[in-house]
Amino acid sequence: MSLLKYESQIREPLVDGNKDYHQITEDIIRPIEMKPSRLWYIGFYISVALLLFGVYSIYREVTYGIGQWNLNKTIGWGWDITNFVWWVGIGHAGTLISAILLLFRQGWRTGVNRAAEAMTIFAVMCAGQFPIWHMGRVWMAFFVLPYPNSRGPLWVNFNSPLLWDVFAISTYFTVSLLFWYSGLLPDLATVRDRAKTKLRKLLYGVASFGWTGSTKHWQRHESLSLVLAGLSTPLVLSVHTIVSFDFATSIVPGWHTTIFPPYFVAGAIFSGFAMVQTLMIVLRKVFALEDYITLGHIEAMNKVIVLTGSIVGIAYITELFIAWYGQNPYEWYTFKENRANIFSPYGWSYWLMMFCNVVSPQMFWFKKLRRNIVFTFFMSIIVNIGMWYERFVIIVTSTYRDYLPSSWSTYYSPSIYEIGFYLGTFGLFFTCFFLFAKYFPVIAVAEIKAILKTSGEGYKRKMTDLEKADSDKFYIDEVEHAH
Amino acid sequence: MAGGIKKFVVGCFDDEAVLFPAVKKVRRAGYKIHDVYTPFPVHGLDHAMGLRETSLHTAGFIYGITGTTTALTCMSWIFTKDWPLNIGGKPHFALPAWIPITFELTVLFAAVGMVLTFCYLCQLSPFVKKHHFHLRATDDLFVMVIECTDKTNDAEVQAFLQDAGAKEINIQHAETGWWLGRYDREQKLYRDTELGY
Question: How close, in Å, is residue B182 to chain A by CA atoms?
């Protein structure tokens, strides 16, 4: 057999342990078939409690109006839009893992893509809440839809970045959902065919759409995944680009910059990977999936974090430099006084952001730290705090001292219902994620099977002799004969 | 959509490395492979079976350009003909500003259209039920199904599969199409039918 079919031993195995196909099915599907652990229930109930608090906060906001939040005349976007951008950004890592890494043929994506895609979908669901409830009179939310309404017929403004956002976020959600679910079909069929109880057979039978595993279906499935990946790749870049246009197309100092699209996209992937780390480190432990989400996977993701973190760092510094070099007094004032001046009201948030996003990820240049699970988990939280502050800094420090100095004294801090809304989206996110982890295969079973023979530890070990024979042959043919 | 009841010889393999030569042998011997059911996409199996390439991606392209044209025609008709809204004195035909929405609709149409086409071609839908030749075809077995005609000597086919390395061989009468059904119920369709064999 040709060596070209195999992966070199130098590459770390992606599936640890001596697995066969059936063992993979067992390992990944078993948690679905067992009663959830006590920890699962505790986590789930906490999430539901947070969700309910969020629902109450939204109820207050809808009933009594936007005044329930501490937004004021200059700060029209506060925590809500900060949270919106933060959640959308988190979603981006899932698409990056499932689509961009598929196009780049990165085998390690198979271990984490399913859960990361689920994370994308739930994060986008959370993100979508903020602009919708921010509308205040939410019963008029359908005004954003492009239809000739009764006042004219007047249409929506297709030249507005806020409308682009409507299209971008809804497309992103739909495409991510389709991509995720089409990938799930074969694995749901696996659960269905193993099912012992009638109820499980019924539910997974419905959910798996009658998938059989026919070769022709697999051929179409492969083609579908590849094209959806090809579509999702520019889509994910466009989504955060368009989100950044919400700011960049305005004339607010601190927002009106051309660097925003790439800088937002890098930041989104940065924070998204941090969230993937947070979830995966817990998931692999709770479901005993250490053989499938290995230290190698965690290290690979940490490498992405240090790369994107550094891009974000360069963007911060470029932005600061251009603010000075551009000679626009308003722009420079925003950067110098509202942000970089640590004694200004929000100076602390700028430097917190700098520390979390630029300084701390540099620790990942050390291999020891990249492969340290506790440190990675800690860092993933730090990065997400940092990225939340990035959006907060952009939104609040640019607007709290506007062109009208008489409104400068207003200091914005959120009300309990603004915080409650944010906590509520955490509740929504984790409620969904706990349900997903309980009822769906958290790792793409079929995809792991497809890479087993090239990247499984057991199979790699068998390669030792073959590889040695081949290198000996190479030596004899090429090196010795040359002399 | 009933495809009719047919008789099949089913051979299960536990290794794709054995399956590949077996597929070639079976085809060379002139037997008709109904399908091979695998737990994961086995690369090159479609070629080995002589299946033609899928044109799903072409359909995707057509859906995509439909999205592009829909977005552009709608926006230009609305902003130049139906209601030319004055937005800061800017041109009514504001092509650069329409690029984001045009792009999003291209992706949306292509993705939704392709997934629907995929489901249609593979006849996948909730509440659709199909005959499964082996439950472990979604776990760890590669199930080759050979269709029998009047002239097929099924003992010969079974011996042939045995020779090719199949671990488990049996004969099944099965409905080839799909029907509306549930996986928690026994399938009634072909059992209730008089078999003509």
Answer: 6
**What is the per-residue pLDDT across A255-289, written as a single tens digit (0 to 9) for each?**
988 999 999 999 999 999 999 999 999 988 888 88
- Residue A66 Cα to chain centre, angstroms: 29
Q: What is the CATH number of the domain that holds B169?
A: 3.30.70.260
**What is the residue-wise DSSP string for A336-369?**
IIIII-TTSTTHHHHHHHHIIIIIGGGGGGSHHH
Q: Please give the model's pTM, rounded to 2 decimal places.
A: 0.92
* Structure letter (DSSP) for residue B54: P
For residue A219, which residues of chain B lie inside 8 Å, CB to CB?
A: 41, 46, 51, 53-54
Number of domains composing chain B: 2
Specify whether the CB–CB gap between A458 and A18 falls below 8 A.
yes
* Closest-CA residue of chain B to A447: B40
* Residue-number span of the structural domain to which B14 is assigned: 5-41+127-180
In this complex, the residue of A168, A206, A227 whose CB is nearest that of residue B100 is A168
The confidence score (pLDDT) of residue A104 equals 85
* All domains of chain A in start order, with CATH: 1-19+456-483 (no CATH), 20-455 (1.20.1630.10)
Cβ pair B39:A449 closer than 8 A? yes
> Are residues B57 and A223, on separate chains, in Cβ contact within 8 Å?
yes
